[in-house]
Design goal:
single chain, 225 residues, mainly beta, 4-stranded antiparallel β-sheet, 1 helix, 3% helix, globular
C-alpha cells in the first residue's frame, strides 16, 4: 500500500465507521465521512485528485455533546447517543439527505439544509441508530434500538428495515432480534444467549445485504462501546 495523501478534516480527524463514495454525471468524485465524536456529524471531501483531496462541506452534529453520526450509506446518515439511551425522539435516528445538487451541498451548514426525511427509532430504551446499510435505493438496514422495544440490557440493538422509497415519510417494515434479548420474550430464561466477558449487551452491528442476493442478510454482533 502506498499513501497518496492526507487530509486533516479541519481538525476533526475522528472519521468513524461510515465512509461512502458518491458521483454523478459531471461531478467530481466525492467521499462522505461520518464522525465518531459528538461535535461534527458529516464531512464531504473532493477526491477527484487523490493526491490533493479537499474539504467541500462539514456539517455539525444535530445534538452536539449528546449524539454522534458514526455510520452512513450515502445519502443517509445515522445518529445516536454513544453512552446512554436517548432522552427523546430528537436524540437518535436516521437522516435521509438530498445530495443531488453539488452547489447546495457546498452551501450547507447543517443537516437540515440537505434533509429529505428522517426515521427516529429512539426513546427511553434506545440509543438510536448505530449502523446503517443503504445500497439499493429502496431499503435502509439499521442496527438500532427502538422506543417500543424494551431490551434486557440497555446496550442491545435490533436489526430493523426501513422502506425509504418515499424518503419524506420512511416507515419501518420489519425487525429481528436474538430470542431472549427483549424483556418479556416467551422463551426466557432458557433462551438467553451466552455473552463474552468483554461484552456489554446483545448488539447487532454490521449488517450487509447485497442487491444480487436481496434474500440474504449478513448480520454481525459486537461488544458495546
Amino acid at each position: 500500500m502506498e499513501q497518496l495523501s492526507q487530509l486533516g478534516l479541519a481538525g476533526n480527524g475522528d472519521g468513524g465507521e461510515g465512509l461512502a463514495p458518491a458521483a454523478a454525471q459531471g461531478w467530481p468524485a466525492h467521499l462522505y465521512l461520518a464522525h465518531e465524536g459528538q461535535k461534527m456529524c458529516l464531512s464531504v471531501v473532493d477526491v477527484t485528485d487523490p493526491r490533493a483531496p479537499s474539504l467541500i462541506a462539514q456539517l455539525p452534529s444535530p445534538g452536539p455533546a449528546v449524539t454522534r453520526c458514526n455510520s452512513l450509506g450515502c445519502p443517509a446518515t445515522s445518529w445516536r447517543s454513544p453512552t446512554r439511551p436517548s432522552r427523546s425522539a430528537r436524540s437518535g435516528g436516521m437522516w435521509l439527505l438530498d445530495v443531488s445538487d453539488l452547489e447546495r451541498v457546498k452551501r450547507a451548514r447543517r443537516l437540515e439544509d440537505l434533509k429529505l426525511g428522517s426515521s427516529t427509532p429512539s426513546g427511553s430504551q434506545s440509543r438510536g441508530v448505530h449502523w446503517l446499510w443503504f445500497v439499493d435505493g429502496d431499503s435502509a438496514h439499521l442496527a438500532t434500538g427502538a422506543g417500543d422495544f424494551e431490551p434486557g440490557h440497555p446496550a442491545t440493538t435490533v436489526y430493523m428495515i426501513v422502506d425509504v422509497r418515499n424518503p419524506r415519510a420512511p416507515p419501518e417494515v420489519g425487525r429481528w432480534w436474538l430470542p431472549g434479548t427483549r424483556t418479556g420474550d416467551s422463551c426466557l430464561p432458557g433462551c438467553l444467549p451466552k455473552r463474552q466477558k468483554i461484552d456489554d449487551g446483545y448488539r447487532a452491528h454490521s449488517i450487509q445485504i447485497y442487491p444480487r442476493r436481496p434474500d440474504r442478510a449478513y448480520v454481525a454482533t459486537a461488544a458495546a462501546c
